[in-house]
Design goal:
The chain is mostly helical and 73 residues long. Helix content is 60%, strand content 5%. The chain has a domain of 44 residues. A two-stranded antiparallel ribbon has the order 1-2. A hairpin with a 5-residue loop joins strand 1 and strand 2. The longest helix has 22 residues. The chain is globular and about 35 Å long. One of its GO terms (biological process) is photosynthetic electron transport in photosystem I.
Length: 73
């Protein structure tokens, strides 16, 4: 499934949902989700004035939490 770009500039994930979170995302969907989460974290860090090191730390934490929850594994 391909993702689309919305008017706000955010990536819209496919809306079809079959089964649990762990089985509904394909490899391409997970990559799109991971990129979107990364962009959101970077934009948030720019907004609050966080430096690159803090931004990278938050991205790593999101990846680690996503792996635990089965979202970005």
């Amino acid at each position: 499934m391909a993702a689309s770009l919305t008017a706000a500039g955010c990536i819209a994930l496919p809306s079809s949902f079959h089964g649990s979170w762990a089985t509904s995302f394909t490899g391409e969907d997970r990559a799109v989700l991971a990129r979107h989460v990364t962009v959101v974290i970077i934009e948030f860090c720019k907004t609050i004035g966080a430096d690159g090191k803090q931004s990278q730390g938050l991205i790593r934490l999101a990846k680690k939490n996503g792996e635990k929850l089965g979202f970005l594994a």
